[in-house]
């Protein structure tokens, strides 16, 4: 039995897509760490420490299928929880595999001590070059570090027809907030050219944030990962903040720019070869440049997607 560890069950589209990408390609029996009340027999409630420990003990393998959970910017205790699972599992001589991970930010000195627990894993597969550089600076074992790309790029999505839609994904953070006024002006210009303006939320908090903005959205969408992918893939242009909004753009060959709210987003843009189009807060002029260069961006994505998908499938080679 595999015990799957991640931020699953909290309504985050990206994490739900990670879980499904893993389950679609791996047929072993699983238990899944769940971040809400258990809704299936194979779910293990995160708040039940006894159940978590019991399933670590019973598992043949501990697998982290992907995500950006090893960081202390949003919560030191979250980092402590996940590295604690690694430490306890290693004491029990369990095989531990960390796939499709982002690493960092690691901002507290004490966090660096707890991150050393990762030296006990069989594989630390990192999905962007910034994470790999951080792992080396933290002096994690070089033999466990592997380069991959995001595991969701292995999902065989059905691609819808492109429509004249400008998609926007923002989350409630400083970088997104600074971009709002420029996006108001830019979206009004696109509306005058016949574009529909679509907000795409990747969790409930995103949805509330998008609804609070002065951008005149024609629609705001929040749904499961398949419908979320479709809502991104239909767009002719997109502004991505969440990591997986950018990943969905790449998978669907959708021209996009990214808002650099977290190193994992910049790292992904570097991997795609579009770091130039990753902004702390895009200006109207930068958005206009994006509009004029969207064919170039689409071509760059199409040149890189094959290699990125190969790197994504490497995650499964390690287990």
What are the key terms here?
319 residues, alpha/beta, Rossmann fold, 12 helices, 18% strand, globular, transferase activity
Concise overview:
The chain has helices at 13-25, 49-58, 76-91, 109-115, 129-137, 174-192, 204-211, 225-233, 243-251, 263-272, 284-292, 294-317, and strands at residues 2-4, 30-34, 43-45, 61-64, 67-70, 95-103, 123-126, 145-147, 165-168, 196-200, 219-221, 237-240, 256-259, 278-279. It is an alpha/beta fold and 319 residues long. It is globular and about 60 Å long.
Number of distinct beta strands: 14
- Show unreliable segments: none
Tell the overall outline: globular
Describe the sheet with the most strands: 8 strands, parallel
User: Mean pLDDT, rounded to whole units?
Assistant: 97
End-to-end Cα distance, whole Å, is 13 Å
What's the helix-strand series? EHEEHEEHEHEHEEHEHEHEHEHEHH
Give the total of domains: 2
Query: Radius of gyration, rounded?
Result: 19 Å
Structural class: alpha/beta
- CATH C-level name of the largest domain: Alpha Beta
How many DSSP H or I helices?
12
CATH architecture of the largest domain: 3-Layer(aba) Sandwich
Helix content: 40-55%
The CATH topology of the largest domain is Rossmann fold
Report on the architecture of this protein.
- This protein is of the alpha/beta class and 319 residues long.
- The chain has 2 domains: 2-148, Rossmann fold, CATH 3.40.50; 165-304, Glycogen Phosphorylase B (Rossmann fold).
- It contains 12 helices and 14 strands.
- It has helices spanning 13-25, 49-58, 76-91, 109-115, 129-137, 174-192, 204-211, 225-233, 243-251, 263-272, 284-292, 294-317, and strands spanning 2-4, 30-34, 43-45, 61-64, 67-70, 95-103, 123-126, 145-147, 165-168, 196-200, 219-221, 237-240, 256-259, 278-279.
- Strands 1, 2, 3, 4, 5, 6, 7 and 8 form an 8-stranded parallel beta sheet that branches. A 6-stranded parallel beta sheet has the order 11-10-9-12-13-14, with helices on both faces.
């Amino acid at each position: 039995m595999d015990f799957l560890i991640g931020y699953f069950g909290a309504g985050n589209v990206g994490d739900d897509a990670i879980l499904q990408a893993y389950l679609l390609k791996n047929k072993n029996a699983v238990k899944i760490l769940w971040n809400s009340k258990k809704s299936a027999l194979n779910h293990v409630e995160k708040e039940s420490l006894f159940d978590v420990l019991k399933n670590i003990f019973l598992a043949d393998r501990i697998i982290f299928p992907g995500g950006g959970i090893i960081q202390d910017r949003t919560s030191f205790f979250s980092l402590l929880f996940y590295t604690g699972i690694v430490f306890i599992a290693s004491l029990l001589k369990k095989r531990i595999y960390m796939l499709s991970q982002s690493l960092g930010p690691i901002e507290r000195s004490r966090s660096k001590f707890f991150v050393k627990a990762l030296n006990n894993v069989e594989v630390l597969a990192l999905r962007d070059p910034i994470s790999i550089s951080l792992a080396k600076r933290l002096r994690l074992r070089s033999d466990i570090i592997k380069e991959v790309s995001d595991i969701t790029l292995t999902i065989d999505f059905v691609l819808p027809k492109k429509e004249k839609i400008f998609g926007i994904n923002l989350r409630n953070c400083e970088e997104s907030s600074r971009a709002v006024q420029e996006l108001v002006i830019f979206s009004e210009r696109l509306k005058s050219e016949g574009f529909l303006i679509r907000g795409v939320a990747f969790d409930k908090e995103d949805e509330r944030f998008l609804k609070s903005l002065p951008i005149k959205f024609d629609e705001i969408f929040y749904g499961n990962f398949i419908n979320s992918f479709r809502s991104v893939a239909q767009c002719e242009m997109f502004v991505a903040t969440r990591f997986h909004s950018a990943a969905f753009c790449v998978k669907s060959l959708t021209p996009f720019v990214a808002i650099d709210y977290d190193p994992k987003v910049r790292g992904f843009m570097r991997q795609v070869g579009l770091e130039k189009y990753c902004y702390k807060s895009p200006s109207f002029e930068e958005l206009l440049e994006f509009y004029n260069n969207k064919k170039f961006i689409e071509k760059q994505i199409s040149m890189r997607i094959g290699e990125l998908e190969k790197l994504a499938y490497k995650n499964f080679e390690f287990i």
